[in-house]
């Protein structure tokens, strides 16, 4: 005879120790998962930042190479000398080396600026930008024009507030007539140095300047990490490969628009089905717990393990059959649409995916 009191006690029994243990394990699992997510997110974000920093640096370097090639190295400056100058100026001013490199690239386009005055011209460019509160490119253009053609250049600089004496103008005129371009350039640079000299270094000695310097050095470290991540260009090769695959797929889709439309509809249908099934799968552990409770009830009622197994199979069968109907219904409907497309395009799609193997 079934003792209903025992049954009630079974369901109302004190399971607090088990519950506490389960809660403790759950908390540990959540904390570990949260820790992994935070650390993984931080590492991923840092790697992304490093790749961007390296990409920016590489772009600035590529511009230097392009200008050196297009001008035939007229300035007499090598890429190594330009990089070294940019690094030196980053560490004494608040300008990052990539920004300095872009300014250098602009100055290089003015082919009358030789290696004897180029370093001083670059420093003057930074001082002008700091004192006049303007970007490096504007300063590079103003300065480059002045040094490339000193006679016309002093008039242009006068319009932005740089004043030359009549004696200086006469000296520049005489030097240019004798072909001493560098001598005329040095007079211009000396005057600019008198008006703006040391501005960039002084700005770096402020609180905001120190902060910019710290950010710039951190950016350099990120560039080195990004360079390591690309493995000397291997990552770029991977991106090129992926780009070519994307181009091939896009070309195929344009050439086979009817089939593309069917594939998009099928993908959307499968995505919707997955969206529907996701919550169901999420609650399956709860269903399993329910089956376990039913099993416990059967045990209490002395119906034995066979009844438990049958009940579990019935529950799983109902869920499985419903899922099967959903999947097969979607697949059949999608197949009806796709079967109307030209079979030849399926062969082309297979060749595209397998590389014609």
Can you give a write-up of this model?
This protein is mainly alpha-helical. Helix content is about 85%, strand content about 0%. The protein is built from 15 helices and no strands. Helix 5 crosses helix 6 and helix 8 runs antiparallel to helix 9.
Features:
single chain, 357 residues, mainly alpha, elongated
Topology:
Blueprint: H1 4-12, H2 16-70, H3 79-92, H4 97-108, H5 118-132, H6 136-148, H7 150-158, H8 166-177, H9 181-196, H10 199-204, H11 207-230, H12 234-255, H13 257-300, H14 304-338, H15 343-354
Helix pairs in contact: 2-4, 2-11, 3-4, 4-5, 4-6, 5-6, 5-9, 6-7, 8-9, 13-14
String of helices and strands: HHHHHHHHHHHHHHH
| Strand percentage | under 5%
Largest sheet: none
Give the C-alpha Rg: 37 Å
Which structural class fits the helix and strand makeup? mainly alpha
Residue-averaged pLDDT: 76
State the helicity in percent bands: over 70%
Beta strand count: 0
Structure annotation, total helices: 15
The gross shape turns out to be elongated
Low-confidence segments = 7-11
Rounded to the nearest angstrom, the distance between the terminal CA atoms is 73 Å
């Amino acid at each position: 005879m079934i003792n209903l009191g025992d049954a009630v006690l079974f369901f109302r029994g004190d399971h607090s120790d088990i519950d506490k243990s389960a809660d403790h394990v759950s908390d540990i699992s959540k904390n570990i998962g949260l820790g992994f997510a935070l650390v993984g997110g931080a590492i991923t974000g840092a790697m992304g930042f490093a790749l961007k920093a390296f990409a920016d640096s590489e772009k600035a370097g590529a511009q230097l190479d392009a200008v050196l090639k297009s001008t035939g190295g007229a300035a007499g400056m090598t890429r190594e000398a330009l990089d070294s100058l940019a690094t030196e100026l980053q560490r004494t001013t608040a300008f990052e080396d990539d920004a300095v490199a872009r300014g250098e690239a602009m100055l290089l386009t003015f082919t009358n600026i030789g290696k004897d005055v180029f370093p001083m011209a670059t420093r003057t460019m930074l001082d002008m930008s700091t004192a006049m509160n303007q970007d490096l490119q504007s300063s590079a253009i103003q300065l480059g024009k002045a040094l490339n053609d000193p006679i016309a250049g002093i008039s242009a600089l006068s319009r932005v507030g740089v004043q030359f004496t009549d004696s200086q103008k006469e000296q520049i005129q005489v030097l240019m007539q004798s072909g001493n371009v560098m001598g005329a350039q040095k007079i211009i640079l000396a005057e600019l140095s008198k008006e703006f000299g040391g501005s960039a270094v002084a700005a770096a000695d402020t609180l905001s300047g120190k902060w910019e310097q710290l950010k710039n050095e951190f950016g350099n470290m990120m560039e080195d990490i990004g360079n390591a991540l690309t493995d000397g260009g291997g990552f770029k090769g991977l991106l090129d490969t992926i780009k070519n695959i994307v181009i091939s797929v896009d070309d195929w889709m344009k050439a086979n628009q009817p089939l593309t439309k069917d594939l998009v509809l099928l993908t959307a249908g499968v995505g919707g089905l997955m969206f529907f099934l996701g919550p169901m799968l999420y609650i399956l552990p709860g269903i399993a717990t329910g089956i376990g409770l039913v099993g416990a009830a059967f045990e209490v009622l002395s119906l034995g393990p066979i009844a438990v197994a049958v009940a579990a199979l019935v529950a799983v069968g109902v869920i499985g059959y419903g899922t099967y109907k959903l999947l097969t219904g979607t697949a059949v409907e999608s197949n009806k649409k796709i079967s109307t497309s030209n079979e030849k395009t399926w062969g082309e799609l297979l060749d595209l995916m397998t590389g014609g193997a």
